[in-house]
Amino acid sequence: MGRVGDLSASMSLADFAGLLSDNLPPTAAGLRVSGPADAVVQRIAVLGGAGDSAFGAVRGSGADVYVTADLRHHAALEAREEALVGNGTPYLIDAGHFATEYLWLQGPADRLIAHNFDAAQSLEAHVSTIVTDPGRSSSAGQHPLPARTPHES
After folding, report:
1. C-alpha of 138 from chain center
2. 35: left (phi over 0), alpha (psi -120 to 50) or beta
3. What is the C-alpha separation between 66 and 146, in angstroms, rounded?
4. What pTM does this model have?
5. Which DSSP symbol is given to 78?
């Protein structure tokens, strides 16, 4: 699994999603959030790239919300249904493949540059900013979703 950590202060799922939206690279699909907007979150699980195979580890971590990408419909639906048997967590945020992997790329690039392979050679590393997600545009719905789905009431 990726990482699990706690925010310094709890906040609503909507505020956390807004924080992510403000800090992740923009993608055509934006964020897909599953859970009540007013739910309180503090423990966060993160896995860059496709992460629906790690639901078991996320549940075991006690995370309030799971940030990952490429959530398949039925896997995400089943994860939310299983969560509702307990306290409703983890809520899900699908932030897109590119956005969830882009954040960590500069670190390895810097380590490659810093590694002294040979004094006679130099190495340049560039982190691409080209969004590689297959979806390049989206059409926002005309009708806002309710704050809670019937299953989350």
Report:
1. 19
2. left
3. 21
4. 0.81
5. H
